[in-house]
Amino acid sequence: MKTWIGLLVFAALGAAQTPEQLAHSREVFQKVCGACHPVERATAMRHTRSEWQDEIAKMVALGAKGTDEEFAVTLDYLATQFGRAPGRPAGGGGLLDGMGPSDKHVVDPAAAERGRTIWAEECIQCHGTQARGTDRGANLIRSELVLHDRYGSTIGPFLKKGHPTQSGKPSGSFTEAQIQDLSHFIHERVNDTLRGSPIFHVHDVLVGNAEAGRAYFNGAGKCSTCHSPTGDLAHIASKYDPPTLQGRFINPRPMGGGRRGGRSGQGGAPQVTITVTTPAGETVTGRPVFLDDFDVALRDASGAYHAWKRVPGLKVVKNDPYVAHDELLTQYTDANMHDILAYLETLK
């Protein structure tokens, strides 16, 4: 059993990390937790810091390996990236319940308006009106430094190191108030990319090459092994606008069809099923209700509930019709996705 001295020291480290520190923490977490089970088993949950500490203590008691410092880093990573505020429900609020950081940056409109003035004077020529970047400067909407920033916590130290400005004013001379105002402005631009924003609009996504998309569909992507432009995809472009069509081929998995089952297969979409064969030879197939390293449960075609402990001799096979799409997510380039969309758009 570990002494947990490291946990007591690192438990107070709630400050925002740099991208490099965050990457290191993620590596330590994957090493410690991934040695025994898929890391998704942990990241699917939301706990307070003390609850995560209890979870780690249980894992140590079951034989998890690591140094005190590694367990401490793992605790801080889980608490900051997959935490919830004390008193907030841990689940039961739907698919999106608990998602996102518990310390979300809340934009102050007045501060963002002040930040807009600083932006126009010092930043707009390189990073653009909406902070999406130009050929002279980076897209800050997709910047990890910005996404991990809270009220200037990472933007401030970056500017203090020195960064070019339009006026030639040293960025290190910005006051804390100016940095916070800039942070509010940039986070407001990030929020404006969300569909809930009143000014959100989908940018043109039809920028690919249809012939290149056809070649990928029939070649490297192996899409034609399951789909046909004259069969299931006939007239697909007449059913969906380009942004919706793009979303459907990149991630066709129905909402709610995750690890714990849910309502996969709604609207006639293919369903994820599991087949369980018991040591006695009985075979049952159905939609998953729960599936992890220790337990499995499903509902069969009649709606009957079945559950088993995962003991030696119990065989579990997951039948996932979307696995090929999941694998493509690690292979697609931006050009591939735009080209496929351009090709699908020809299927009127």
Architecture overview:
This protein is α+β, with helices and mostly antiparallel strands. The chain has four domains: 5-81, no CATH class; 109-191, Cytochrome Bc1 Complex, Chain D, domain 2, CATH 1.10.760.10; 210-252 and 325-344; 266-321, SH3 type barrels (Roll), CATH 2.30.30. It is 39% helix and 8% strand. The chain is built from 15 helices and five strands. It has helices at 5-10, 19-34, 40-43, 49-61, 68-81, 109-122, 124-127, 144-147, 155-160, 176-191, 210-218, 236-239, 242-250, 323-328, 334-344, and strands at residues 273-277, 283-291, 295-299, 305-309, 315-319. Strands 4-3-2-1-5 form a five-stranded antiparallel sheet, with no helix packed on it. A hairpin with a 5-residue loop joins strand 3 (295-299) and strand 4 (305-309). Helix 2 crosses helix 5 (68-81) and helix 6 packs across helix 10. The longest helix has 16 residues, at 19-34.
Write out key terms for the chains shown.
5 strands, 39% helix, flat, 15 helices, 4 domains, disordered N terminus, alpha+beta, 348 residues, Cytochrome Bc1 Complex, Chain D, domain 2
